[in-house]
Inverse folding.
């Protein structure tokens, strides 16, 4: 038996499902880092940083699973998600100052996590039998729910409410709608990938300043 055959036996083949799972874990790690870094900036202790990182990473998914009747939430059924969240939070606590320098790189993973969570949330809502508005809501809250919980715990106005220059919740909603629109015509994984592409594309466009949401101002302000 040759070397390549031995390696093939030891390592399972990489399927689309496996790739999406690993990207999902990377998104969890990135969300945990962003939440924990906020805790470090707020001078939370170790426990506070770990909690903030974990709720950021798994909060949106927990809301998604609750809305679609998948209980207990996935992170309790598959603890690799929780381990990834704890790892990200611990890294932020230990190396927060150094990691903050790689904000652009972290934002790439954050966008990937947002896209995957929004798409998987939308797919779960479709499988649960929800209509288009329910699918969009579930997908969007799956992507941004953890960040909203993070900001509320840290006594901050949730970023999704005012970061008009960087489409975030809007991108998640658009990705979820894409999953719903594609689902009757392609395989579930193809529809999920379509939603992921839309979210990442909108995030990239908005970060370059090519798209933003309008803001209404009252007279005299």
């Amino acid at each position: 038996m040759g070397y390549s055959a031995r390696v093939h036996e030891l390592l399972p083949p990489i399927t689309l499902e496996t790739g999406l799972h690993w990207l999902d874990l990377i998104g969890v790690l990135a969300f945990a880092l962003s939440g924990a870094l906020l805790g470090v900036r707020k001078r939370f202790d170790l426990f506070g940083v770990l909690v903030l990182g974990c709720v950021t990473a798994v909060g949106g998914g927990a809301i998604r699973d609750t809305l679609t009747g998948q209980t207990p939430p996935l992170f309790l059924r598959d603890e690799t998600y929780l381990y990834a969240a704890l790892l990200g939070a611990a890294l932020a606590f230990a190396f927060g100052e150094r990691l903050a320098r790689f904000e652009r790189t972290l934002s790439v993973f954050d966008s990937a996590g947002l896209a995957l969570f929004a798409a998987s949330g939308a797919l779960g809502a479709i499988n649960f039998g929800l209509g288009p508005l329910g699918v969009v809501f579930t997908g969007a809250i799956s992507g941004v729910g953890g960040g909203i919980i993070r900001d509320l715990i840290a006594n901050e106005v949730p970023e999704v409410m005012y970061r008009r220059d960087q489409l975030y919740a809007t991108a998640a909603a658009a990705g979820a709608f894409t999953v719903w629109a594609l689902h009757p015509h392609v395989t579930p994984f193809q529809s999920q990938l379509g939603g992921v592409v839309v979210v990442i594309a909108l995030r990239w466009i908005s970060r370059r300043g090519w798209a933003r949401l309008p803001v209404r101002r009252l007279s005299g302000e």
Notes: Residues 3-8 have pLDDT under 50 and may be disordered.
